[in-house]
Design a protein that fits this description.
Layout lengths: L9 H11 L13 H16 L14 H4 L6 H15 L4 H15 L5 H10 L4 H10 L9 H20 L5 H13 L3 H17 L3 H25 L1 H9 L13 H11 L11 H17 L1 E2 L2 E2 L5 H4 L5 H17 L4 H13 L13 H7 L4 H9 L6 H13 L5 H13 L3 H8 L7 H24 L4 H13 L3 H6 L26 E3 L5 E3 L7 E7 L4 H17 L4 E7 L4 H11 L5 E2 L8 H6 L6 E5 L5 E3 L5 H10 L1
Parallel strand pairs: 5-6, 6-7
Antiparallel strand pairs: 1-2, 3-4, 5-8, 8-9
């Protein structure tokens, strides 16, 4: 791991000083005083005066990621500073780069284009400018020139990787490296985009587009390995110091377990792996062996928990695993092991920078590996709109064929990680029982099997929390009130994520108590008979602020008709929450305990993403846990 920044460069000294001031890089930068603002302006003036050396400016590489966090009054000053230099020297590269960054922050993508293009003509390989281009493309936008956009990003990535390859372990290198991985625009993300474009245009027989995609895909392959050499130098160093970690042959069935054991021994069982090239080669050989073996009795010999581990592999491994599995599937269309590996690798690389054309490998994998509960669970957690009841049936059948306790394990995972359980599906079907009679008939045996699994678990572990709560869920869903009261459904603040949010839908909101940011105690019972929105949010959540106008509209229209809103802040800094309330003129109470993700109500309800907006009916039934935008108002209008 790299050491903390230690530099004479004022920019990095400034960023490090935020901690000592009780601020954060994420948001505190906007709170800096006038004296520090003036120091920063002087700093940028010096960087412009430093000019261009070896095709690059002296500006901090990740400037684009900080411009929007600077105090609002600084942007006009920075713009004026850059323009003053360009007025006397129109070819001033550093001034053009600074102006491009400010313009992009201030004007947006389209209006800032002339400023960006001007800078590109002056210093096309400048790291600050190229990282601005990555920042600009961090969210993909389609259009007629879809392939050309990928070409542009590849050129930018080539420039960035060429620059980083020449750097030592300096503050600027660390700065660029950190920024690069935060944005997620990489050769592999472009590769996945181009593969999706290629597949789509092959169907339309657009030969020229497909040809161009193939050419750019070849560039991606090269850059993926270049990225590993430049940004993962610790792995190369580790390879030299520790050439052999796992002695077992990759063909050995125990190789994976042996590899995981070595991680534990070296204290690397967390997601922060350093896989040396030697171990990567061994793992690839092992996985290729398992893929070649295909499917026997409806199962593969691939190791379990692959969806958890695959995201930790380097992108070069993803590339080789994907292409090997694609090749095997082309030769052997019934090879379920190849389909399963493809489904996982493709899904786990889906991100906001991807062109989302779906994952064509999930459904075939489910069909080709019929006795594998893991791929069914993975298909459900991928949220790709597949038939959830059919997936549950396959999962249950596969789990029960593997032993008495296996079904309970998968049920606990369903409740904790996905929320799509037999009871969840049953409740939805019972909204229209006549229309769904046949589906309900299929769902009830799953509920019975789940009940038996929970009861068996309690025979072995009498106080198992998941089994007790699972039985309560079943009894309530089936209307067995007396038994449901014996096994009450509730959250549990001592367990990190007790239930996936979706598992709460259709249930009654339990009573709760909390304290607002101004010290006022409130409880769920205060809102009985009211329609309630629980808005889990935070100032640092970029999407939370965009929900406020929709929430305020709903509040203004329906507050007099009995609707209330409670904000539950996952902020840690009360001053930031106060600023958030003031900026958005929020009229409803905000629960706050300063514990961030460990906020008691958030833990109790299993909140894992923000914003999360829970709509609760007057009778305390939880209607939705993820309704956002205009849909919230539409749903309230139907129910109020």
């Amino acid at each position: 791991m790299f050491d903390k920044y230690d530099s004479t460069d004022y920019w990095y000294t400034f960023l490090n000083s935020l901690d000592s001031l009780g601020l954060t890089i994420k948001s505190g930068i906007s709170e800096i005083d006038e004296e520090m603002q003036e120091k920063l302006l002087t700093y940028f003036k010096e960087k412009i005066e430093a000019g261009v050396t070896n095709g690059e400016t002296a500006l901090p590489p990740s400037l684009s990621d900080y411009c929007w966090r600077l105090p609002k009054e600084m942007l006009p000053k920075l713009r004026s500073l850059a323009e003053s230099f360009l007025d006397t020297d129109p070819q001033n590269g550093p001034a053009a780069v600074l102006l491009a960054n400010v313009a992009y922050t201030d004007l947006g993508s389209s209006e800032s284009l002339p400023f960006v293009e001007k800078a590109l003509t002056l210093v096309p390989k400048d790291p600050c400018l190229n990282l601005l281009m990555i920042y600009k493309h961090r969210r993909y936008y389609g259009g007629a020139k879809i392939v050309e956009v990928q070409e542009t990003i590849l050129t930018v990535l080539e420039n960035v990787l060429e620059w980083t390859n020449r750097q030592d372990n300096s503050a600027r290198f660390q700065d660029a490296r950190s920024f690069y991985f935060r944005q997620g625009v990489t050769p592999y993300s472009v590769y996945t985009n181009l593969k999706s474009i290629e597949a789509r245009w092959e169907k339309k027989e657009k030969v020229e587009v497909v040809k161009k995609c193939k050419e750019e895909i070849e560039k991606c392959r090269t850059l993926i390995y270049t990225e590993q050499e430049t940004f993962h130098r610790e792995a190369i160093q580790a390879s030299e110091e520790q050439p052999i970690i796992v002695n077992e042959s990759p063909e050995n069935v125990n190789f994976w377990e042996a590899f995981l054991d070595t991680l534990i021994e070296r204290g690397l069982s967390t997601p922060r792996w350093v896989l040396t090239k030697n171990v990567q080669d061994q793992l690839l050989k092992y996985f290729k062996t398992k893929i070649k073996e295909g499917v026997t009795d409806g199962l593969t010999t691939l190791p379990s928990d692959l969806p958890e581990y695959v995201p930790r592999f380097p992108k070069a491994m993803h590339l080789e695993l994907r292409e090997f599995a694609e090749e095997m599937l082309e030769k052997q269309p019934e090879n379920g092991a190849a389909a399963k590996m493809l489904a996982i690798v493709v899904e786990k690389n889906d991100n906001p920078n991807s062109i989302r054309l779906g994952n064509p490998f999930i459904e075939p994998a489910v069909q080709l590996v019929p006795n594998d509960p893991e791929i069914c669970f993975f298909a459900m957690s991928s949220n790709r709109g597949l038939d959830e009841l059919s997936l549950l049936e396959k999962l249950f059948n596969g789990a029960q064929s593997q032993g008495k306790t296996e079904l309970f394990r998968w049920l606990a995972k369903l409740y904790k990680e996905v929320g799509t359980t037999p009871c969840h599906i049953y409740r939805n079907l019972m909204k229209k029982p006549d229309e769904n009679a046949e589906l309900i008939k299929r769902c009830k045996p799953l509920i019975e099997q789940a009940q038996q699994a929970f009861q068996q678990r309690l025979e072995e572990v009498p106080d198992d929390w998941y089994a007790l709560r699972g039985l309560g869920d079943i009894y309530e869903a089936l209307g067995e009130t007396e038994l449901a009261q014996k096994y009450p459904w509730e959250g549990h603040s001592n367990i990190e994520t007790v239930w996936n949010q979706k598992a709460w839908v259709g249930r009654k909101l339990p009573d709760f108590s909390a304290t607002t940011h101004d010290g006022t105690p409130i409880s769920g019972s205060d809102y009985h008979g009211k329609m309630l929105v629980l808005n889990f949010c935070a100032k640092w959540c970029g999407f939370c602020a965009s929900e406020i106008p929709h929430l305020k509209k709903v509040y203004e229209e329906y507050h007099d008709k009995g609707l209330e809103i409670i904000g539950v802040s996952l902020d840690e800094n009360e001053a930031e929450l106060q600023e958030y309330i003031k900026e958005n003129d929020i009229p409803w109470p905000q629960v706050f305990d300063g514990k961030g993700w460990n906020t008691e109500l958030a833990r109790y309800f299993g909140i894992i993403s923000l914003p999360s907006q829970w709509l609760i009916h007057r009778d305390r039934t939880i209607i939705s846990v993820d309704t956002r935008g205009e849909q919230l108002g539409q749903l309230v209008e139907q129910l109020i």
